[in-house]
Amino acid sequence: MEKMRVHLFVYGRVQGVFFRAGAQKRARKLGLTGWAHNLIDGRVELVAEGEKGAAEQFVQWCREGTPLAKVDRVDVRQEKCTGEFEDFSIHEFGF
Asked: Can you tell me where the transmembrane regions are (predicted)?
């Protein structure tokens, strides 16, 4: 099974609309580990890793977001998997 790690920056109305909680729920459902946090400029930053197909599905979900979100853009970088995470967690802010 091929592993994949994605590092995402999500732009738009993505804070205060349960985006991080929705991302956590989706990541856990897909068996991914990582984290999500808000950035001071209004973006949400996320890192997720796991099975390649699951990571790709997660990226697609981030392009849509929660029903209250309005995603304008998602920047995605693929990185080397590290296996450092045990779960998908939410952090309050990342500065």
From this structure: none
